[in-house]
Design goal:
By secondary structure, the chain is mostly beta strands. Among the domains are: about 35-125, Immunoglobulin-like; about 130-235, no CATH class; about 465-565 and about 580-595, no CATH class. Strand 5 (about 50-55) and strand 6 form a beta hairpin. Helix 6 packs across helix 8 (about 220-235). The longest helix has 16 residues, at about 220-235.
Amino acid sequence: MKNLLGAITLGLLFISTAGLAQVPYIGERVYPEGYITGKVTSENGPEAGVWVIAETKETNTPFVKIVVTDDEGNYVLPQMPVATYMVWVRGYGLVDSEKIKGRPGDRDLDLTAVVAGSPAEAAEYYPADYWMSLVQFPGDDVLTAEGEDRQGFAPAIDSQKRMLHEFKSDCGFCHQIGNKITRTLGHMDALGHDSSKESWIYRTQTGVRGGSMFGNFAQFGLDAMATTMANWTDSIADGALPPVPPRPAGIERNVVVTLRDIGGDQDFMHDEITTDKNNPTVNAYGPTYAVSSGHGLLSVVDPITNDAYDIVIPTRDDPRDVPSRFPAPGQPSNFWGMEHLWGFENPSDPHNAMLGPDGRVWMTSKIRSNTSPDWCDPDSGNKFSAYADPGFSNRQASVYDPKTGEFELIETCYATHHLQFANNPESTLYFNELLGPLFGWIDTRTFDNTHDEQAAVGWCPQIIDTNGDGTITKPWNAWGDDNPDANLDTEIRANMYTVIPDPRDGDVVWGANENSALHPYGSIVRLDRGDNPPETCISEVYAIPDPGFDPRGMDIDSNGNPWVALAGSSHWATLDRSACPVLNGAGTEMGTHCEAGWTLYETPGPKLGNTDVPADFHYFGWVDQHNVTGLGKDTPIINGSWSDSLIALDPESGDWTYLRVPYPMGFYSRGLDARIDDPDTGWKGRSIWANYGTHLIWHVEGGKGTTGKMVQFQIRDTPLDY
């Protein structure tokens, strides 16, 4: 699509998208009622806990429905649009069955499952984390040694904990590891490398992410890390096999998965959104939205009409003057050669989207060059700038109104990353900075009433009440001060990866920090704006306790208890602030004053070789404050980004429930949310939503040409509900 430019009026840009391929709502907004039934058997008899997959390309965008068989091998595929489907069986211990044709209304469409001829054949269908369990990581005996005993690992990698923190975070940030394309090297044979180690060094330099991949890889000690990964792929080539995953059982057999294609075969879809966090009935039966970061698009799927389309996210400045954060490849990709895939045509660089209470779609996106307007300057008279200079802003905000088809672009001064609405009358929209310590916000009610950016936008630094007087007063101990004054408060600078407001208090917001000088294995930060920000802003920090490390995605329950996904150590962790013996005072900037308030739940699945850390990677998580899913109020659900799944926790029992996506393999999710379409229709009117958020969609089963998928999960009362 061509970039859309509009007139600048009062410093704001309103851009109509009315001419784009948008789909009107026609007729009743409900899912279809057609269904297919049958029974799955193999040479061993009825096959329980296996997946029945139905796929069609006759809908407006390709459509897949997946269910699980019951104890007797019976299945029901519900809510099927009228089309001809190819239907087959996939399951652990099996290989894919023959695909047969079926249509809604077919009864007794029986399927013959095919038992795997060998453990190796069966293992081809195991999730990535199972294959990752075969990687053998060096232990502390190596990483705390000196000289040649370190086996070439870099001095900065001084413990296995540090190695796993960097490996899982830096490599898992973009894509799965352990899927077919990463655990094998056969697709590189034509390059003629002399060893697997040489292939690993080369592969980390290729394509659209080659520069960052190689830097992350080399930090461990290039030769040592290449040897570690080459030993892994060589062992698999020599026949090493992971443990066998269990088949779905219990509630897992009630899960219905629906996939609809979205975007193109080069798109990097970061997150999705379908409703308002504070009111999950917003946008009922409406479109689902994802942002294509590299292509500057808002990608849309209509789950009723099964239409998919893209909308260009505009910039205020001429797109030619808006720099992209995506460099051209330095080495040719095995899939795309030297093609520059991202950021050069539509440079808005959206990161993630959020629905407001009126159904508008708010996004973090780039609206300009990296030069901020004059009113962001500390000498401009802006009270927030005078209090804390925001410095650099490489991404701002925009909002799309589906009713008018128009965008409005908004200056923020600070750099935006994630965003989330508070549950307050002002509809405050909070933001975090990825590479800065500020919490920012837009008072959306003020903005809508005035369209005055300066009046609506604010931010606060992170200042800890270390003198214990209950207020923050200038001057304070500056960040990194070697001789802090005990009578002063103390500045910290924890770069936030996430942001989440307290649902009970719109002035309180939390964020997660992966690592900092004070908290090398991560922390979470609480900000209370008070009644006159920025002067009344006061922060608290809580370091992640052992054995946890590497906080990433974050959410909060209805009681105000934050939950944070520990991507490195593979825990769902929660903090009960009411259990803290103190909240402020001397030493609280270290964040170790409330270890008693933490509870860590280790996630399931196999563990990385030579470690006690699960092999899964958890990018984000979400807490069901409204019992949308039917799993219970405040059920926390974590992304199983390396296990093709979402994983729900029962905090009382400690039990986990997998919501697995078996096809196409490579379901790498970043975020999720859940929506109520109709509260009176039981499970049919309630869904969890996620998407394939990998940077490299061509790594998904099907390879090059595969597009992104919007994924809908429903949890039936029984495996045979229709």
